[in-house]
Design a protein that fits this description.
One of its GO terms (cellular component) is membrane. Residues 295-325 are annotated as: Disordered. Residues 69-270 form the Serine aminopeptidase S33 domain. There is one protein chain. Helices cover 37% and strands 13% of the residues. With 636 residues, it is of the alpha/beta class. It folds into 2 domains: 10-138 and 200-281, Rossmann fold, CATH 3.40.50.1820; 374-624, 3-Layer(aba) Sandwich (Glycerol-3-phosphate (1)-acyltransferase).
């Protein structure tokens, strides 16, 4: 029997921690080219207090190519994560070369929730090292022994590294100077150890791994679905990290960057840098997974595996799919709303949310009349306003008020599909916000998956046709005759909540609709060609002959933004037996539509009694409270 080849790179045992490591998030540290963690060991005690901390050791004699290294580590991390409680998050921490490993591993491991990257080496090919690096291993031995000391000013600020030795910032200057001198002397053995873990042949191979890793990872950055925190040193002289950070923040779908002033490449070794505190400051630390739906408990997962070792529970990075995704932290929700300009939009339209109590039919302010989160599948069905500004406002409000993420079914074009390949950057801030906060491409399959999982789904039957209305269609419902979504809701016994939104169509003047633009000389032919390349959302069972799907927006003039109002009607229960009766399904479909029309009628009538329905009085009132209090509205 052939002997099984041992992994070339290996995970270290967990470091000791209090509380017990088994209750903490798993964090796997991926080292730089030294392969040992030498550049980050000062951070380990503080990290081990918050994480179940593992490291990766790369043997100096190993010559596994980058792709093989990723495969080996992916298997080991997956095996480690398979035994975890499914509520425990999994982090990857990659420094320099380890940043390349982390980005490659994240694409393979669905169990990984979050990445922390410190001066990741994605910019290696734009640094001097592809040219200069191959010369270093060929240095004479006596010069190579001095190489770590010679390179130390590039790797880090020696004074900042030695400052760890200062006993107290309050000590007299003379004592601080003595401590600093001893700290510099203590650095010499650390720098010399680099020569031991990186003999010339190993350094040559690790530089080749950097080249391979950068070439493999950079073209696939958009495939990294996890949330990413980038920490880079302003004065990194090894690679251009400060200029690389904005590029990565744009290329990665869910990344944010923080440039650390005065810090260098080996910033984790410098005094005053506390990585665990930085992660917490950025609201990037989560001790438990908070998903849109819970993972199976360990016993259930083991039973589902049929006696085999279960695969690790998936993390919360299934963005853009009907899989469970991680709820954002308050800081992440705030940042995302700001980046998508949603906070500014919300301030302009000051949305009012009302709901209807099912048993009494009484309308009330707030969302108190809705089914409680976790009480079973819910399908929210409503109207699209002109240009479809409804979904992001609803999703954000539900997260803030109920800690519940609505899973919106959005047109593929809104999520970046179309003439270009799907790309989070191409979809713009709006599409990126939708996908990050629960949206999936609208399709029968995705709706089926969401309802089967018990998630709250958000559907607009009118689709893009209703969002891009023609003249004289103000607040009109333009729905297909087929009642497929009702049949699907019945299959899972989902509660249907009809709702309506108004305000957007009072904020613009429709000057020319699709028909006018298509009839215009020159521009009409161009628009027709562009529209033919658009992605259709109504396919398969969703196809509707009576509704022409067009992605040509009308030409509008803007008026002062009207206040937005959302009303959720009385919840409508369904039953699987109803779904088997065609006449009953059609009747239920009519009830849902009637519910939306009733909500529209109520809002259009009642908003006239809102003293702050107009922009200037509303802005003046809210400004008088420093933006911390919303203007009141009509009494329901």
């Amino acid at each position: 029997m052939p002997r099984r080849r041992q992994p070339t790179a290996s995970l270290t045992p967990p470091l000791t921690a209090t509380p017990p490591a088994s209750s903490l998030p798993l964090l796997v540290y991926l080292p730089g080219i030294d392969g040992t963690g030498l550049a980050a060991y000062r951070q380990f005690p503080r990290l081990a207090a918050r994480f179940d901390l593992r490291g990766v050791f790369l043997p100096p004699q190993d010559r596994t190519p980058f792709a093989g290294l990723v495969e080996s580590l992916a298997q080991q991390i997956e095996d480690e994560a398979a035994g975890l409680d499914p509520s425990r998050p999994v982090y990857l921490l990659g420094e320099s070369f380890g940043g390349l490993l982390a980005l490659a591993l994240a694409q393979k491991l669905s169990c990984v929730d979050r990445l922390v990257l410190v001066n990741p080496a994605t910019s290696f090919d734009r640094s001097p090292w592809p040219s200069l690096g191959p010369l270093l291993p060929s240095l004479p031995p006596e010069l190579y022994r001095l190489l770590p000391v010679a390179l130390s000013p590039l790797l880090s600020n020696p004074i900042a590294m030695a400052a760890h030795a200062i006993s107290s910032p309050a000590a007299p200057p003379q004592q601080q100077a003595v401590d600093l001198l001893y700290g510099l002397l203590e650095l010499l053995p650390e720098l010399s150890s680099l020569r031991i873990v990186l003999p010339p042949e190993t350094l040559s191979w690790r530089l080749e791994l950097l080249r391979q890793g950068a070439a493999e990872v950079n073209p696939t950055l958009k495939k990294v679905r996890q949330r990413v925190l980038l920490l880079v040193g302003e004065n990194d002289m090894v690679i251009p990290s400060a200029s690389e950070a904005p590029r990565l923040a744009r290329a990665l779908p869910r990344a944010r960057a923080r440039v650390l002033s005065g810090r260098s490449h080996a910033l984790l070794q410098e005094a005053g840098v506390d990585l665990a505190a930085l992660v917490a400051e950025e609201d990037f630390y989560v001790s438990r997974r908070r998903l849109t739906r819970p993972n199976k408990p360990p016993a259930a997962a083991a039973a589902a595996a049929g006696g085999r070792r279960p695969r690790p529970a998936p993390g919360g990075a299934a963005f853009g799919t009907p899989g469970a995704i991680e709820l954002p932290t308050p800081g992440e929700l705030h940042r995302a709303a700001k980046e998508a300009n949603l906070d500014s939009f919300r301030a302009l339209v000051s949305p009012v949310f009302l709901s209807t109590d099912g048993p009494t039919g009484r309308v009330q302010l707030g969302l108190g009349g809705l089914p409680a989160p976790g009480s079973g599948p819910v399908l929210f069905v409503g109207n699209h306003q002109l240009f479809a500004p409804d979904m992001p406002l609803m999703v954000e409000h539900f997260l803030r008020e109920r800690g519940q993420m609505l899973r919106g079914l959005a047109h593929p074009m809104a999520l970046g599909a179309g003439r270009a390949s799907p790309d989070p950057e191409a979809s713009g801030r709006f599409g990126r916000f939708l996908e990050t906060f629960g949206a999936v491409p609208v399709s029968g399959r995705n709706l089926h998956a969401l309802l089967a999982a018990g998630e709250p789904a958000l559907l607009y039957p009118g689709g893009v046709r209703e969002a891009l209305k023609l003249r004289n269609e103000r607040y009109a419902l333009i729905w297909p005759r087929r009642a497929e979504f009702v049949r699907m809701a019945c299959k899972f016994g989902a509660t249907i909540v009809p709702f309506a939104a108004v305000g957007a169509e009072d904020s613009v003047e429709l000057l020319a609709d699709r028909r006018d633009l298509l009839a215009a000389p020159l521009v009409g032919d161009w628009l027709r060609r562009q529209n033919e390349q658009s992605v259709l959302a109504r396919r398969g069972v969703s196809y509707s002959e009576e509704i022409e799907e067009s992605f040509i927006p009308p030409l509008v003039g803007f008026k002062p933004p009207a206040r937005f109002y959302f009303l959720f009607g009385a919840p409508i229960p369904t039953d699987p037996r109803v779904g088997e009766d065609r006449a009953a399904v059609e009747a239920l479909y009519g009830n849902v539509r009637h519910g939306v029309e009733g909500c529209l009628s109520y809002l259009l009538r009642k908003r006239d009694s809102d003293p702050y329905k107009d922009l200037l009085p509303r802005l003046a009132y809210e400004a008088s409270w420093g933006g911390k209090r919303q203007a009141p509205t009509f009494k329901p």
